[in-house]
Amino acid sequence: MTPMSMILQAVLNGIAEGALLAMMALGITLIFGVAKFSNNAHGEILTVGAYGTFWASAVFSLPMWLSVPAGVALAVVVGLLAYLLVFRHMVDRPIAALLASIGVSIFLRGLISLIAGTQQYGLDVPMWRAWRFAGLRILPMETYVCIASFIAIFAVHLILKNTRIGVEMRAVADNPLLARTSGINPERVNRATWTIALVGGGLAGIFVAAKTAVYPDLGWGLLLPAFAAAVLGGLGSPYGAILAGLLLGIAQNVATLWINDTYKSSIAFVVLIAVLLVKPSGLTGRREVAR
């Protein structure tokens, strides 16, 4: 391949990876925008979604088009239980919620290992030959995952812009006190926000598992790059998280043309530090995102 073809190939791979990062960062930043804390247990939601899909397919012999909704449903149920049993009681205590999310993350990871073991499993997805176009190698699975990710992101955009709950979510994120005095029910907004973030997280976990494998540390390995994208975009800014996820995905893959793939994830933090030194609030964030 020519140098230009190699760069274009890296950019294509980066877009596919960035779409998944954007989905994960979107869930993190939605919860931060409303609840004002960074949910460290979000990575385990990805893992639960992947395992739910695997169990539905392998244990209950459901076709993949039914196994995926089953995996997402399990992720939503587990995440809402965590919210109802733990995080709902820590409203207006973001530091306590942050620490609790670390505990929930460790507990869920241990529970998954206890139930499913530590071995890796593969989802029953078709194997396709790579497409060749203008000297570029395009993987069908990555293409379909990328398209599905963008559809999910666009669905969140429509909810935020065109529904009453979306308007209420944005109002709570902008000014919680004013939103409450305007008659907005914060509990309803919190439940809706968590549900949207959990659906996105469950889907992201399934998409990653379709490309790799299902294992207990699946979400944990993706959590730090997702946090980097959320912070880079400006915590509390959904569109910033989407933009940052795409940029980091492309930056990481282009960087592998010159550095070992082992160090690819570190590029996300190099870019994060460089941007925050110039613009501490992130790409689209405001100067102050939490009080």
TrEMBL record:
Keywords: Amino-acid transport, Cell inner membrane, Cell membrane, Membrane, Transmembrane, Transmembrane helix, Transport. It comes from the Bacteria. It is a multi-pass membrane protein. The keyword Chaperone does not apply. Its main location: membrane. It is found in: Cell membrane. The keyword Transmembrane helix applies. InterPro entries: ABC_transp_permease, BCAA_transport_permease. The chain crosses the membrane at residues 6-33, 68-86, 98-118, 138-160, 192-212, 266-285. PANTHER family: BRANCHED-CHAIN AMINO ACID TRANSPORT SYSTEM PERMEASE PROTEIN LIVH, HIGH-AFFINITY BRANCHED-CHAIN AMINO ACID TRANSPORT SYSTEM PERMEASE PROTEIN LIVH. Belongs to the binding-protein-dependent transport system permease family. LivHM subfamily. This is Branched-chain amino acid ABC transporter permease.
